[in-house]
Amino acid sequence: MSSLSDSDDVEYNGSETLDPFQKVNVVEENTRREPISIELTYPLGADPTTGNITVRLQTDPSPGCGGIAWPAGEVLAKYLAGKGPDNLNGKAIVELGSGTGLVGLVAALLGARVYITDQLPLLPAMEKNTDLNGLQNRVNVVEYNWGGDIPDGLPDRIDYVLAADCVYFEPAFPLLVKTLCDLNGRGQPEFFFCYKKRRKADKRFFAQLKKYFTWQQVGDDPDFQVYSRDSISLFRLVFKGKGGV
Ligand SMILES: C[S@@+](CC[C@H](N)C(=O)[O-])C[C@H]1O[C@@H](n2cnc3c(N)ncnc32)[C@H](O)[C@@H]1O
Q1: Probe target for ligand 1 pocket from 24, 58, 65, 194, with the most ligand atoms within 8 Å of CB
Q2: Residue 21: inside a domain, yes or no?
Q3: Which end of the chain lies in a sparser environment, N or C, as judged by fewer CB atoms within 10 Å?
Q4: Considering the domain boundaries, does residue 107 fall inside one?
Q5: Hey, whose CA ends up nearest to atom 1 of ligand 1?
Q6: Would residue 172 count as lying in a domain?
Q7: pTM for this structure?
Q8: Using one digit for the tens of pLDDT, what is the confidence trace for 29-74?
Q9: How many domains does the chain have?
């Protein structure tokens, strides 16, 4: 079980809005406030001769903090690309709090059937980014508010649930935990949960999560040393057993 150090805690400031200027040093382009188009390129698989994949995004902070790509999202996207297409090809994947759709779109480029989900204001941006990458046949954009019923249209059996940078607003913590538990009921998927530690309150999310899940740091990511310096962790969550929220 990974432990969360308190040494660099920042107090929760009571705001739902993350400041995009704070330590966003993975996707530097996103420090701008106006809509921009970006291309992110990741090595495909561990073999350098295999090439890269490129995802195109339009980012726009106006619909909310999810309108830009966040560092934990880029870590998870790069990890998935680095594992190569063999892992994800044909799999059913649900991403929570997708924002721009970065992580889910990379999974779709790797051959997965993907459901990128978020709250209503983000959906037009996610549709746009799906189109930009020509992934309409493989990506579904779905409204999913954490804590609510699993929306119609998500598959009965899910292979992977992905979430990046979704721990930042304390009132949403129990809602996100409930949603993770609910999705476990859809065929016990694997959960990849990429987290950037920002605030002391984050540990209350993990206190709630541990009633239902254990977690371990993903052990096969060659970038681990790099992103851990930015207080980013990539966890694999494992459901503890029966029960629910
Ligand atoms: C910090 S952004 C991360 C976006 C993206 N995963 C990334 O890494 O770039 C958090 C995302 O969670 C979504 N979110 C926050 N609260 C939510 C809720 N209650 N239900 C569904 N999505 C939520 C936000 O709309 C936003 O897109």
Answers
A1: 65
A2: no
A3: N
A4: yes
A5: 165
A6: yes
A7: 0.89
A8: 455 567 889 999 999 988 878 899 999 999 988 888 898 999 999 9
A9: 1
